[in-house]
TrEMBL record, chains A, B:
Stored Gene3D superfamilies: Medium-chain alcohol dehydrogenases, catalytic domain (3.90.180.10), NAD(P)-binding Rossmann-like Domain (3.40.50.720)
Keyword GTP-binding found: no
Pfam families referenced in this protein's UniProt entry, alphabetically: ADH_N_2, ADH_zinc_N
Keyword S-adenosyl-L-methionine attached: no
UniProt keyword terms in alphabetical order: Oxidoreductase
Phylogenetic lineage: Bacteria, Bacillati, Actinomycetota, Actinomycetes, Micrococcales
Organism: Labedella gwakjiensis
InterPro entries, sorted: ADH-like_C, ADH_N_2, ER, GroES-like_sf, MDR_fam, NAD(P)-bd_dom_sf
Region (Disordered): 1-20
Record's compositionally biased regions (Polar residues): 1-13
Protein name as annotated: NADP-dependent oxidoreductase
Residue stretches making up the Enoyl reductase (ER) domain: 19-334
GO MF annotations, alphabetized: oxidoreductase activity, acting on the CH-CH group of donors, NAD or NADP as acceptor
């Protein structure tokens, strides 16, 4: 047993609009010897996720705001390097929520020790095999009630959740899958790698028109990661009885003024639409069902994924900011 | 058998914004002798409803637009004055959708001959015992999934649907029922006659603030007849897991510019809200269940109602316009 210095990223001030590096600070902790029952985990990958932006505000939400001066918590995965827990061997893969740190030390009960599949990197537990994949699955099944033959529109389709949504929608029987993304390269990837039937670059403008062109027969399901003009476009494109799973609204996360909502809310009534927002906390009971299906799809070679990797815990804030600006394709990760 | 002259109101031009009397015309028909299977019905009451405004536009909706130069169809009730249908006696009460006319003549199959309850006026079939009551019931049960102990907010609560919603919500176990209306008199009526726990006048402004004051513990269910600032206020007041039944959006029916939507749509995600729009066509199978419950409540003296009555078929357009401006308390009807 030895002392170890841990580098951790903390929130220093609440961002007003777009976060800046000054809103964060890098802190060093020295962990002493392990207490009985504790393990020490060296992270291999740390996750940066859009929902974290919400936690940086001091407002009511489904998770408590981050406290100023404390380490940013969130998904990460690493390996046990020392153990004072009887049943946890050194080398075990440890998934946890201790967040933006290179090394963490805590009671073994705060980690989930996960089996490893040869050939699959640990990082997949932070996205397609983890919460991100589950988010896509829950949104399509429990929230939007996807049916065979549905036409599905996914906003922010080249992100971590979006790439999963398109593939899962197809595997669950969608007839046509349409995605939006923020660059020509991402748009190409959607149709060439992720099985989207049509995709468009929302930065070309006229999201309404582009969606209408891509969905001449309308849409039945909308999986929204963006909000704003994307939700408005979907409300115009919906067929009667359409269902929206509202998962994220990244378009508004860094605005200081509240943006007006869609100008076509009345379509919700006349077309009998359902808009349902969700966060994963209420749906974790679906994780086993999801794991079983996703593992099978993965084994069958049905699932593609991308990772955009930034190296070094000291670059975590930069990775987070780049992700908020859409610099990632697939999952944005920090490799420690 | 004799010929008869029928006075009918037709749509002459599509209103741009608020309808004016010039958008309508009064036509006279002469019906000849009855064909076999036909009945002649003299209307007693003709219904004017908010949804009719939507049908005056030439846009996609859940029902086809009214055709120019044809009689405005919609709910009405009268009595058979001549019958060439074997099983339909003169004097039978006839509920139908032939609309804005004093006398109509058509195949008996286009009428529903309804039993009468002594002491209950026929007009109730056009509201609390008819589609209006069913709308309230369906919205609370199938759409908003009202649970015992819920706090319910109803916009446009003094209208035909709203007065029904408040009472049904209470009878189904709501803990607290809050309503908005457009005058001090209506607000008083809500708490004194319709069992609302709290009510406010939206014309006083600050719907958000007034709702927050009336619902210090938040709302669980929102039954919306108004849209606009009312929906926005509800999105701020919702507790986690809240459910909105979007039934009407009268605030926007007569605007020529599309109004911006709520600025707080992100609450749908963070609070796990469900917004579900509906029109009655998909829920008519619930009519028998509703009729049974409502008849029981009525017999037990649990149901209050109001009618705002305008006399004369020639005043139907005026009644419609007054209703759109909120001049009615409870159901607006034309007595023929």
């Amino acid at each position: 047993m030895t002392e170890i210095v841990s580098t951790q990223i903390q929130l220093q001030s609440r961002p007003d609009g777009w976060p800046t590096p000054d809103d964060f600070r890098t802190a060093s902790f020295t962990y002493g010897d392990l207490e009985p029952g504790q393990v020490r985990v060296r992270n291999e990958f740390v996750s940066v996720d859009p929902y974290m932006r919400g936690r940086m505000n001091d407002v009511r939400s489904y998770v408590a705001p981050y406290a100023l001066g404390e380490t940013i918590t969130g998904g990460a995965i690493g390996r046990v390097v020392e153990s004072a827990a009887d049943d946890v061997p050194v080398g075990a893969a440890a998934l946890h929520q201790h967040g933006w740190a290179d090394v963490v030390q805590a009671d073994a009960s705060t980690f989930r020790f996960v089996p490893e599949t040869p050939g699959l990197p640990l990082s997949l537990r932070l996205h397609i095999l983890g919460m991100t994949g589950l988010t896509a699955y829950v949104g399509l099944t429990e929230i939007a009630h996807l049916k065979e033959g549905d036409t599905v529109f996914v906003s922010g389709a080249a992100g971590a959740v979006g790439t999963a949504v398109g593939q899962i929608a197809r595997l669950l029987g969608a007839k046509r899958v349409i995605g939006s993304a923020g660059s020509a390269e991402k748009v190409a990837l959607l149709t060439e790698k992720y099985g989207y039937d049509a995709a468009f670059d929302y930065k070309d403008g006229d999201v309404r028109g582009q969606l209408a062109d891509a969905a001449p027969e309308g849409i039945d399901v909308f999986f929204d990661n963006v909000g704003g003009d994307h939700l408005e476009a979907a409300l115009d494109a919906f067929n009667d009885g359409g269902r929206a799973a509202l998962c994220g609204a990244i378009a508004g996360y860094n605005t200081t003024e509240k943006a007006a909502g869609p100008d076509n809310m009345a379509n919700i009534i006349t077309r009998g639409l359902t808009l349902k927002g969700f966060t994963l906390a209420a749906y974790l009971h679906l994780a086993p069902e999801f794991q079983e299906k996703m593992t099978g799809w993965f084994a069958a070679g049905e699932i593609a994924y991308d990772e955009t990797i930034v190296d070094g815990i000291e670059n975590t804030v930069d990775a987070f900011l780049q992700m908020m600006k859409g610099a990632n394709t697939g999952k944005m990760l920090v490799r420690v």
